[in-house]
């Protein structure tokens, strides 16, 4: 009988397969490598599989978590009740104090008038919904998905978002508070759910519209309509309602009359609101296209904030809210006791100086230009960074915009010291490789094109079109020569100049602070307070800790934490002190001689905005940095106006009224303070005055070319009883060079006869000032012969 092959796929239990050479091998074991033990099929999980839960364990975990969440929800719903109205619904007053504890102002009386929803136009309600919560009527009281999305966006750096519905916002406004805590969010969540079941959507929306803060101390739509448009809420147009709705996002920042520099952002929010109304079908495209931005009225503050009080309160509020110390709505709710850094005597001295040097000289009934005059000022203690005086305008109830903090006027030539400081800080050189020092000679001809700039031809005009020829940096500072400083900015590097200005104190977002040659001429629109901080940094030898206007804050007897002031060096002492030394020449014999009425050593710089729309004087003594600006603005339209003819003068520039205010204020403010000299560590390379200048600027107008006279023609007499200490110039070895270094431009070397003086530097590197000028306050010798003070 023949053998039958085994059937495919079948083998006896003990059968083995023949391997190579006829060897037998056992069949593969499906459980090989697995340890037998407890578990399904007697198998045990090993390796990384042990860290992965089984589906049964995962399901059990989800069930437990779900049960806990349900229990937590039930507990929260049962334990959290709808409370009575919170304290913010009945706001208190804030009390503002001077540094010495005496009362400065009281603010915080709430402006609120509740109205029924029917009295608020439907278009206004739709505008609010388009701006804040477009799905309000279709959504639940809370939106968990939006809350999770907002939390995720905040954590991933896409901006802080609340994720709150209008119902939640109303709960926060009326029943709780503005603090960002988990406990407040927990309560808000459950109160909103309960409120959504107990009140209709219309009732909730009415409550929200009556409790929301719109800025200008206005709570609710009715108060906002009166505050911004002087009308009843029922008469608001669609455009006006959209603007009020836009304010809910940033009430103070989007007030375009208080902060004209934020008009672009406010318009963007207004357009977003209107576009949302179109998207939701609440406004037709044709109506949207015909809508024009409704500029609000100027604010009408409470009479209790008249004079300077309102300006101070406004500045303090911006300081607290911008630094996150207290949020805007909580501060507006009141109850805070705020001690400022302002000193009553210095505040009074500022008001007096402006009144005597500016206000008393105005005749608005006879001269139309006098109606346009505005004044802003600020003073900072360089050592502490404290704002000791602030002048915002003639009266807060008459001129609402704070002239000390607004950022819409060009700073002019008061910016030039930042260029000089940058040159020393970066050890810059001229186009032909010469180190830039106060004695470096430049070509000061009018409309001279700058060299080394790849951005196109730029040839700035000097004041009154005067050509100065070869001129030192120091003399160019005294005379505020645009041609020299535009070239100096290119030599240093406009980007480096910008960084230096920001380091000294100008905000990075300052409008028109662009890295180009024109930066040296001051097109930037920094505020008076910004400029004061920057000059205080120079006075403090290049160290900056930021200004402060608040000394302490408390509520209900509990102190509110303030950020610690940390001073750091932002430019070298050599850069700051060299700039100070040069700026002393501006006061002693340059365009700022009117500031000598302070009766003490001083450094400063004049400045004039384009078309003479503003005139500045910025300066400092060792103990006080102060900036004064006279601005032109139409009182009816708010349009900036030139100052031609104001105060009965052909023009107003920095060496006139601003310098006189500065001199009187500084003298009065420091009357009880010992006169001290600057102690300066300066750059090597002191020098003679350099070549004669063919013309100059009078404090209140041009004098025309006058080669034989260097200083301004106007000599301001000193007040009775004030004398100036004489100048003591140390005996210095002087080396007269055969010719001056080569100048930039087509002027031959040595032209103008300005020799460079190279005196020895004192062993300790410190030059000590000996006083601001001669006792008769006269202009001194001609520039071509008189010796400049050693730097």
- What general form does the structure show? globular
Structural class: alpha+beta
Strand content: 5-15%
Number-wise, the strands total 22
How much helix, percentage-wise, in residues? Answer: 25-40%
Q: pLDDT under 50 segments (min length 5)?
A: 1-25, 30-42, 686-791
Number of helices: 20
State mean pLDDT (0 to 100 scale): 79
Question: Order of strands in the sheet with the most strands?
Answer: 4-3-7-13-14
What is the C-alpha radius of gyration, as a whole number of Å? 36 Å
* Largest sheet descriptor: 5 strands, mixed
Give the termini separation: 128 Å
Key attributes of the depicted protein:
disordered N terminus; 20 helices; 791 residues; five-stranded mixed beta sheet; alpha+beta; five-stranded antiparallel beta sheet; globular; disordered C terminus
Topology:
Blueprint: E1 17-18, E2 24-25, H1 55-79, E3 94-97, E4 103-107, E5 111-112, H2 122-132, H3 144-155, H4 166-174, H5 182-198, H6 201-211, E6 218-219, H7 221-229, H8 238-247, H9 263-279, H10 285-290, H11 309-322, H12 328-333, E7 336-340, H13 344-357, E8 373-380, E9 387-391, H14 416-425, E10 441-443, E11 470-472, H15 473-479, H16 482-492, H17 494-504, H18 528-539, E12 543-544, E13 550-555, E14 558-560, E15 568-569, H19 573-589, E16 603-608, E17 614-620, E18 625-632, H20 657-669, E19 679-681, E20 695-698, E21 701-705, E22 766-768
Helix pairs in contact: 2-8, 2-9, 4-5, 4-6, 8-9, 13-20, 14-16, 14-17, 14-19, 15-19, 17-18
């Amino acid at each position: 009988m023949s053998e039958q092959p085994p059937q495919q796929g079948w083998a006896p239990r003990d059968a083995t397969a023949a391997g190579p050479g006829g060897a037998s091998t056992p069949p593969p074991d499906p459980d090989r490598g697995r340890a037998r033990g407890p578990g399904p099929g007697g198998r045990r999980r090993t390796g990384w599989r042990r860290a992965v839960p089984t589906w049964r364990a995962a399901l059990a975990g989800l069930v437990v978590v779900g049960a806990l969440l349900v229990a937590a929800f039930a507990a929260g719903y049962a334990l959290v009740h709808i409370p009575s109205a919170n304290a913010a619904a009945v706001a208190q007053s804030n009390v503002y104090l001077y540094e010495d504890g005496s009362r400065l102002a009281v603010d915080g009386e709430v402006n609120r008038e509740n109205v029924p929803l029917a009295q608020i136009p439907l278009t206004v309600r739709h505008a609010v919904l388009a701006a804040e919560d477009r799905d309000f009527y279709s959504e639940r009281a809370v939106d968990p998905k939006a809350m999770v999305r907002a939390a995720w966006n905040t954590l991933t750096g896409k901006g802080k978002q609340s994720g709150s519905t209008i119902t939640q916002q109303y709960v926060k406004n009326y029943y709780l508070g503005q603090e960002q805590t988990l406990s407040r969010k927990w309560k808000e969540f459950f109160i909103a759910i309960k409120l959504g079941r107990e009140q209709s959507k219309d009732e909730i929306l009415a409550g929200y519209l009556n409790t929301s803060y719109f800025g200008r101390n206005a709570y609710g739509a009715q108060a906002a309509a009166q505050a911004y448009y002087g009308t009843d809420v029922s008469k608001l147009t669609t455009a006006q309602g959209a603007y009020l709705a836009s304010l809910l996002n940033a009430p103070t920042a989007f007030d375009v009359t208080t902060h004209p520099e934020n008009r672009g952002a406010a318009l963007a929010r207004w357009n977003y609101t209107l576009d949302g109304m179109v998207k939701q079908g609440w406004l037709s495209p044709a109506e949207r296209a015909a809508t024009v931005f409704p500029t609000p009225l100027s604010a009408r503050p409470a009479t209790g904030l008249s004079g300077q009080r309102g300006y101070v309160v406004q500045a303090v509020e911006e300081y607290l809210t911008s630094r996150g110390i207290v949020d805007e709505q909580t501060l507006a709710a009141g109850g805070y006791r705020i001690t400022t850094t302002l000193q009553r005597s210095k505040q009074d001295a500022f008001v007096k100086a402006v009144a005597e040097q500016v206000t008393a000289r105005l005749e608005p009934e006879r001269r139309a230009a006098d109606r346009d005059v505005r004044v802003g000022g600020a003073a900072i203690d360089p050592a502490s960074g404290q704002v000791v005086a602030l002048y915002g305008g003639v009266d807060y109830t008459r001129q609402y915009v704070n002239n000390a903090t607004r950022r819409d006027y060009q700073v002019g030539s008061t910016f030039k010291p930042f260029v000089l400081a940058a040159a020393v800080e970066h050890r810059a050189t001229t186009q032909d490789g010469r180190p830039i020092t106060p004695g470096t000679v430049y070509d000061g001809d009018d409309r001279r094109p700058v060299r080394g700039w790849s951005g196109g031809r730029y040839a700035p005009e000097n004041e009154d079109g005067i050509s100065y020829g070869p001129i030192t940096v120091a003399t160019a500072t005294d005379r505020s020569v645009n041609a020299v400083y535009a070239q100096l900015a290119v030599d240093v590097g406009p980007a480096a100049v910008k960084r230096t200005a920001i380091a000294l104190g100008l905000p990075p977002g300052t409008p028109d602070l662009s890295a180009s040659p024109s930066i040296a001429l001051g097109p930037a629109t920094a505020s008076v307070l910004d400029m004061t901080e920057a000059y205080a940094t120079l006075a403090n030898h290049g160290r900056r800790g930021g200004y402060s206007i608040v000394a302490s804050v408390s509520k209900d007897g509990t102190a509110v934490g303030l950020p610690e002031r940390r001073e750091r060096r932002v430019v070298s002492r050599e850069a700051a002190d060299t700039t100070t030394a040069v700026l002393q020449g501006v006061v002693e014999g340059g365009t700022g001689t009117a500031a000598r009425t302070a009766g003490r050593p001083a450094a400063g710089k004049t400045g004039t905005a384009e078309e003479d729309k503003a005139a500045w004087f910025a300066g400092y003594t060792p103990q006080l940095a102060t900036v004064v600006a006279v601005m032109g603005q139409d009182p009816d339209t708010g349009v900036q106006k030139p100052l031609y003819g104001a105060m009965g003068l052909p023009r107003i520039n920095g060496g006139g009224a601003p310098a006189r205010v500065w001199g009187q204020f500084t003298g009065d403010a420091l009357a009880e303070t010992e006169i001290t000299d600057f102690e300066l560590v300066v750059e090597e390379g002191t020098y003679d005055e350099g070549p004669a200048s063919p013309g100059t600027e009078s404090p209140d107008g041009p004098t025309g070319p006058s080669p034989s006279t260097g200083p301004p023609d106007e000599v301001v007499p000193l007040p009775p009883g004030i004398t100036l200490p004489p100048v003591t110039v140390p005996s210095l070895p002087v080396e007269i060079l055969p010719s001056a270094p080569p100048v930039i431009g087509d002027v031959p070397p040595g032209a103008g006869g300005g020799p460079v003086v190279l005196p020895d530097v004192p062993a300790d590197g410190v030059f000590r000032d000996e006083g601001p000028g001669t006792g008769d306050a006269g202009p001194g010798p001609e520039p071509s012969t008189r010796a400049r003070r050693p730097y």
